[in-house]
Amino acid sequence: MNRLAPLALLALAAILPLVGVYPLFLTKCLTFALFAMAFNLFTGYVGLLSIGHASFFGMGAYIAGYAAKAWGMPTPVALLAGIAVATALGAAFGAIAIRRRGIYFAMITLALAQMVYFFCSQAPFTGAEDGLQNIPRGTAFGLPLGDDLVFYYFVLALTVLAYLFIQTIIAKPFGETLQAIRDNEPRAISLGYDVRSYKLVAFTISAAIAGLAGSLKAFALGVATLPDVHWTQSGNVILMCLLGGMGTALGPIVGAIVVVLLENQLASLGVIRLGFVSIDFSTKAPIVIGIVFMLCVLLFRRGIVGEVIALFGKRGLAVETAPRHTS
User: Fold this and answer.
1) In the chain, which ranges are continuous DSSP H helix?
2) Contact at 8 Å (CB) between 52 and 109?
3) I need a surface site. Which of 140, 151, 169, 316 has the fewest CB within 10 A?
4) Torsion of CA 74, 76, 80, 86, to 10 degrees
């Protein structure tokens, strides 16, 4: 089950654009899935809630977009520039924030992220309210990224590599130590682990992957805007992970797809009349998604993937403990 599910999801992702699904929509799903995986790497496996990940996502978008548009950097180099800035920002934020835990950690990350937001709203290279527009995709390794289908498979390849990288980290002693810190930090400290260093490294890696996600999103849509770096974007990624299943491998991916799909479908509904009442779903999407999230938290506390894992786990346990009759 654990091996087949990712392979099935990958096969589905490879086939969907060939059967008529819009590649740009699928690319948007992938970029937010990547962002959710980055967030889950830290919050899901370390257990600290960050409300500042939008700053890494947004700055990655701005830096990569500006590097490609204004400096004429090749797309791979521009992506690396976005990742580098997000990594540096993550290391700086982490060095300050990991000294605290719980709500204090969350508030520090929020405060730092708001500083980045106000910087981006005033910096000349971001375009302020208009955003950084007309970002060229260019080419990468001879591939014409201006073609939506080619760019989709390019993003899919990077997303798969990021997924494998994260799962490798989690399976190694480093990842097991992160989960030990999440489950019982005082015990991890008593065993001699440098807890702060582990948290800082995890936070920095998470920021780097979030920067990659933001950079790819900027190239996909050709624009980087202030909402990318606003704290509400952090709220979106928290929603994605909780909806899909925090601390699971595929949960962030499933959650991101569900949220992006809901936003897209609700926006396409437009105004619907119910008797004397008119509801514009294109502007009420956050409310509907919030209701879905609330129902999920109340009914499926582990998230979609978490509940599926628990269901199969119970079935497996029932099979193992079932009495065997011998003749």
Assistant:
1) 4-15, 23-39, 45-46, 53-69, 75-97, 102-122, 148-171, 173-183, 185-190, 195-221, 231-244, 251-269, 281-299, 303-321
2) yes
3) 316
4) 100
**Whether residue 68 has pLDDT greater than 90:** yes
Annotated domain spans of the chain: 8-15+22-229
Residue 85 to residue 137: CA distance in whole angstroms: 19
Separation of alpha carbons 320 and 208, rounded Å: 42
Rounded to whole angstroms, how far apart are CA atoms 207 and 55? 9
Coil, helix or strand at residue 280: strand
**Whole-angstrom Cα distance, residue 51 to residue 117?**
13
CA separation for the pair 83, 56 (Å, rounded): 9
Q: pLDDT, tens digit, for every residue of 71-129?
A: 999 999 999 999 999 999 999 999 999 988 889 999 999 999 999 999 999 998 998 88
- Tokens 């992970």 label which residue? 241
> What is residue 139's three-state secondary structure?
strand
pLDDT at 23: 94
Instruction: Please give the biggest Cα pair distance in the chain.
Output: 82
- CB neighbours of 41 closer than 8 A, spacing ≥ 6? 166, 169, 170, 202, 205, 206, 209
The DSSP code for 273 is: E
Residue 169 burial (10 A CB sphere; 0-12, 13-18, 19+): middle
The amino acid that residue 183 corresponds to is: D
Which residues sit opposite 133 in a β-bridge? 223
List all residues 6 or more positions away from 120 whose beta carbon is below 8 Å from its beta carbon.
58, 59, 62, 126, 226, 229
Residue pLDDT, tens place only, 144-188? 999 999 999 999 999 999 999 999 999 999 999 999 999 999 999
